[in-house]
């Protein structure tokens, strides 16, 4: 009976942690500049000790390879320069100005649910012949809430819903 209770307890903890989710509405503003290059954008999660645990998105010019990734300075230092195939599944082309929806299922890069607790969400944008913006915000997995980040130059307002 104790063993069955232990298994049930472990299953409940796993399902609660696995149920954590982030819904992110990321805005790229329309900039009236010439020449305009779409920004590279990286979104990732770090644990409380600032170790990267999950890469949510990486938008870059696909034909350029990794040539300009170094301009995403925080991402490059934490993940980019040593990244292998683990970021392939979240890498895509740069996006047009407007609102873009991202979802994260609360799992690390290996597909394991992260335990409830404090994490840091990082959002960085860098544009060739443009500027660089960076947000780092604390989130708590396992605790629902809404977070709003103010607009900067390369990034418009960002809405985050922790579920």
Keywords:
DUF2271; disordered N terminus; 2 helices; mainly beta; 39% strand; five-stranded mixed beta sheet; four-stranded antiparallel beta sheet; Immunoglobulin-like
Average predicted confidence as pLDDT: 86
Helix content: 10-25%
**How is the biggest beta sheet arranged?**
5 strands, mixed
Could you tell me how far the N terminus lies from the C terminus, measured between alpha carbons in angstroms? 33 Å
Radius of gyration: 17 Å
Low-confidence runs of at least 5 consecutive residues? 1-17
- Write down the CATH topology: Immunoglobulin-like
Keywords: Signal
Protein name: DUF2271 domain-containing protein
InterPro entries: DUF2271
Pfam families: DUF2271 (PF10029)
Describe the structure.
The model is unreliable at 1-17 (pLDDT under 50). The protein has one domain (2-162): Immunoglobulin-like. It is built from 2 helices and 9 strands, in the order H-E-E-E-H-E-E-E-E-E-E. A 5-stranded mixed beta sheet has the order 4-3-2-6-7. It is mainly beta and 163 residues long. The chain is globular and about 45 Å long. 14% of the residues lie in helices and 39% in strands. The protein has helices at 2-18, 73-78, and strands at 22-28, 40-47, 52-60, 91-93, 98-104, 117-126, 132-141, 145-149, 158-162. It comes from Bowmanella denitrificans. This is DUF2271 domain-containing protein. Keywords: Signal. Residues 1-19 form the signal peptide.
